[in-house]
């Protein structure tokens, strides 16, 4: 139904352009396929912490399907509102998932002596909180700016929310790129170094695409403010559909595709892919491994029921004991090691 054929008093859902039916079909098919792929990867690797990616892909797929419904029947208001919500939220879900993956990459690769603020520029135990909270705050401000909470807060707060998210996305991209660069100098296993480099580069590329989308969101909010102020639509952003696809939907597709190609669940050990990152447990495991791994032939032994205060060379101690009780000091095979 064209906009001109709408019943009297019904506003067209897309007042400045006619959305493409073909693009909506392609979008629904692509994002539905990505949903299936991410669900299969999630089940295969049991990386339950990556559950936000299939949720984001599913929302995009459903949003595109509802967009088709709105295109064919513009008089339906409910599908338009639901579609707008489903197509808006995945950006934040994807960003939060990337931040979570970056935090786990830090705990997987960074040596204990480098796991500090001076090296990482953020405390590793609070990296997710520091980056995720402003992202959620940006969504909240945007929701308030749209008047969904029963009062009109104005479009300025809508723009503030978009700017906050854009800055967080750009900061995240810089931190991941820097981490990928400096981690090359750390003394870690070559296989782990290669895997962490691949993950770091994929996260950096994903961060770039998320940042591009964040910039687009700021420009959209600015165009909306200009429209309300001047009552005239700004060119391109509000009057044409292609910027929405190029700078909004395409970056989300790129992030979902990159994550599926370099799936973090295929790289991380099992202790890092649970729903919750137990940093205290990780630190305890590191201490246990250090305690259970004596260096060379030197370790602490127990004498008379209490641990000796000095490390003892076990090989030399055994030779000395045999020499004392068996009088074998003259035997060349039992000489003290150098």
Automatic annotation (TrEMBL):
The chain crosses the membrane at residues 20-43, 55-76, 82-107, 119-137, 157-177, 198-216, 242-263. It comes from Pseudomassariella vexata. Keywords: Membrane, Transmembrane, Transmembrane helix. GO terms for cellular component: membrane. It is found in: Membrane. InterPro entries: RTA1. This is RTA1 like protein-domain-containing protein. It is a multi-pass membrane protein. Pfam families: RTA1.
């Amino acid at each position: 139904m064209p906009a001109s054929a709408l019943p009297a008093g019904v506003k067209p859902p897309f007042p400045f352009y006619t959305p493409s039916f073909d693009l909506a079909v392609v979008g629904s098919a692509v994002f539905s396929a990505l949903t299936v792929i991410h669900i299969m990867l999630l089940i295969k690797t049991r990386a339950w912490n990556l559950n936000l990616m299939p949720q984001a892909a599913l929302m995009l797929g459903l949003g595109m399907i509802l967009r088709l419904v709105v295109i064919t029947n513009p008089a339906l208001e409910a599908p338009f509102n639901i579609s707008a919500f489903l197509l808006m939220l995945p950006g934040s879900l994807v960003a939060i998932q990337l931040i979570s993956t970056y935090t786990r990459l830090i705990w997987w690769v960074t040596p204990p002596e480098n796991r500090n603020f001076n090296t990482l520029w953020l405390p590793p135990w609070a990296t997710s909180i520091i980056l995720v909270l402003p992202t959620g705050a940006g969504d909240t401000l945007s929701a308030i700016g749209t008047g969904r909470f029963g009062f009109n807060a104005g479009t300025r707060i809508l723009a503030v929310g978009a700017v906050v998210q854009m800055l967080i996305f750009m900061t995240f991209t810089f931190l991941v790129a820097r981490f990928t660069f400096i981690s090359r100098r750390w003394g870690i296993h070559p296989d782990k170094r290669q895997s962490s480099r691949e993950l770091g580069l994929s996260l950096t590329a994903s961060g770039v695409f998320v940042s591009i989308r964040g910039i687009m969101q700021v420009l959209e909010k600015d165009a909306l403010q200009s429209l309300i102020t001047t009552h005239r639509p700004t060119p391109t952003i509000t009057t044409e559909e292609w910027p929405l696809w190029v700078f909004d939907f395409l970056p989300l597709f790129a992030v979902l595709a990159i994550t599926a190609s370099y799936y973090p669940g295929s790289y991380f050990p099992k202790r890092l892919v649970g729903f919750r990152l137990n940093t205290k447990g990780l630190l305890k495991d590191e201490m246990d491994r250090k305690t259970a791994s004596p260096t060379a032939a030197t370790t602490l032994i127990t004498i008379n029921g209490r641990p000796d205060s000095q490390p003892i060379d076990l090989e030399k101690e055994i030779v000395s004991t045999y020499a004392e009780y068996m009088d074998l000091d003259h035997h060349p095979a039992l000489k003290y090691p150098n």
